[in-house]
Design brief:
The protein is about 30% helix and about 30% strand. It is of the alpha+beta class. A 5-stranded mixed β-sheet has the order 1-2-3-5-4. Strands 7-6-8-9 form a 4-stranded antiparallel β-sheet, sandwiched between helices. A hairpin with a 2-residue loop joins strand 2 and strand 3. Helix 3 packs across helix 4. It starts with 17 loop residues before the first strand and ends with a strand.
């Protein structure tokens, strides 16, 4: 019997190498290059002083948060055609940007955006599996950096975020549950899940299915346990990143931006 091994040699419960590089897009209020192994996504957050027409029409107060997602043509081995050249939006991209928006709206008080829209743009530079989970994890960081800058400028009165949010993939690869699938594992997995969770451990979304296969209740529990452990690590990395990179003008700030006088 052949001993189980992952393509990149990781343990079954091991995340890929993580890197969060701040201020990758200087004209955005907040931006991060989120790297999960060879998957690299630019996540940027920008505030616009307007809300969608439907909010004004229906008399909905507060602000809004929405997301856009795209894979750049050179992000994959074979050049990916731009949506504009196809004359239509890519269905997968639309589904992912809706997931990103839902994930961040789950942890934000939209009333505190006060007639503004916070735009989240996620552009995939290089894809090696898990682009949607890397986008969510990096988008939270970009949004938090943007919010703190806007608070410091007096544009927002207070931090609207209630918690952090992160996401990770899990799956059954060669009959073994594994964490944070790269492209080869994602392609060959018989079961594939994307899990989104808050820093407090609450689920936002669980997307999962068998790829022409089924999975047992025990396997489901194993996959969710792997995801929970992975997201706990991601939440700690997010917290450490924000402690290092959030602006502190005469005050200290906790990971959710609640200012504490020094």
């Amino acid at each position: 019997m052949t001993e189980f091994a992952r393509p990149d040699g990781r343990q079954v419960d091991q995340l890929r190498t993580l890197l969060f590089q701040p201020n990758i897009a200087p004209h955005a209020q907040g931006s991060v290059l989120a790297c999960f192994g060879d998957t690299r996504v630019i996540c940027a957050a920008s505030l616009e002083k307007k809300v969608p027409h439907w909010m004004r029409q229906q008399g909905v107060s507060g602000g809004w948060l929405t997301a856009e997602y795209s894979m750049l043509p050179y992000s994959t081995l074979d050049r990916k055609q731009r949506d504009i050249s196809k004359g239509r939006l890519d269905g997968r991209g639309v589904e992912i940007q809706r997931l990103i928006g839902r994930s961040l709206r789950a942890v934000i008080d939209l009333q505190k955006l006060t007639d503004h829209t916070l735009w989240i743009d996620c552009d995939v530079l290089q894809a090696d599996g898990g682009t949607r989970t890397a986008s969510i994890t990096g988008a939270y960081l970009a949004a938090r950096m943007a919010v703190q800058q806007l608070i410091d400028k007096g544009i927002l009165a207070e931090n609207p975020f209630l918690d952090s949010v992160a996401a990770v993939s899990v799956g059954v690869y060669r009959e073994t549950p594994v964490l944070d699938l790269n492209y080869v594992e994602d392609r060959d997995a018989t079961v594939d899940f994307n899990v989104v969770q808050t820093g407090a451990g609450q689920y936002v979304e669980v997307q999962g299915s068998g790829e022409e296969a089924t999975f047992s209740g025990d396997q489901l529990e194993q996959l969710l346990a792997l995801a929970r452990a992975g997201i706990e690590t991601l939440a700690r990395r997010q917290e450490a990143f924000l402690e290092k990179h959030l602006p502190k003008k005469g005050v200290d700030a906790d990971p959710l931006g609640n200012k504490i006088p020094l």
